[in-house]
Amino acid sequence: MEIILKKDIQGLGFVNDLVSVKPGYGRNYLIPQGFAIIANETNKKILAENLKQAAHKAEKVKAEAEDKAAKIASASIKIATKVGETGRIFGAVTTLQLSDALKEQGIDIDRKQISIKADVKEIGTYTANIALHKEVSAEASFEVVAE
């Protein structure tokens, strides 16, 4: 029995996948729970149209992510923190501080998209990886300076 998945199901497939399952599993569990619909000709045509429209929207989102990546690469980011006599900062620079520094330059990035490769506990230049899209990521170089 062929069905079209409406939700991600571990071990079976992802949303909008056309999969083949045993009739009892499809009829008695997946369809009544709203996890899938029967893959007849009408539903297959609807699926094809939805995928076509989603692909167009996905291209637009990816283009916007690439524009943000270009802005991030050209941005000069400085984060001012309190520093002790030895050159070590009090605490550590976090993704929230980096997100706020980017926001000051007009680039709105959620802190959950940022990952800093090393612990930032001293003055210097560091890099962070920013995941903007599943296919687009940017490297941001930022400098930690004394306040």
* CATH top level label of the largest domain: Alpha Beta
- Per DSSP, what share of the residues sits in E-state strands of 2 or more residues? 15-25%
Q: Could you say which overall geometry the principal axes of the C-alpha atoms support? A: elongated
Termini, distance in Å? Answer: 66 Å
Cα Rg: 23 Å
The description of the largest β-sheet is: 4 strands, mixed
Number of E strands? 7
The strand line-up of the biggest sheet is 4-7-6-5
Which whole number gives the mean pLDDT?
A: 90
Number of domains: 2
pLDDT < 50 stretches: none
What structural class do you assign from the helix and strand content?
alpha+beta
Please, how many helices? 3
Level-2 CATH architecture of the largest domain: Roll
The name CATH uses for the topology of the largest domain is: Ribosomal Protein L9, domain 2
Q: How much helix is in the residues?
A: 25-40%
Task: Report what the structure shows.
The protein has three helices and seven strands. It is an alpha+beta fold and 147 residues long. It has two domains: 2-60, Ribosomal protein L9, N-terminal domain (Ribosomal Protein L9, domain 1, 3-Layer(aba) Sandwich), CATH 3.40.5.10; 65-146, Ribosomal protein L9, C-terminal domain (Ribosomal Protein L9, domain 2), CATH 3.10.430.100. It has a four-stranded mixed sheet with strand order 4-7-6-5. It has a three-stranded antiparallel sheet with strand order 2-1-3, with helices on one face.
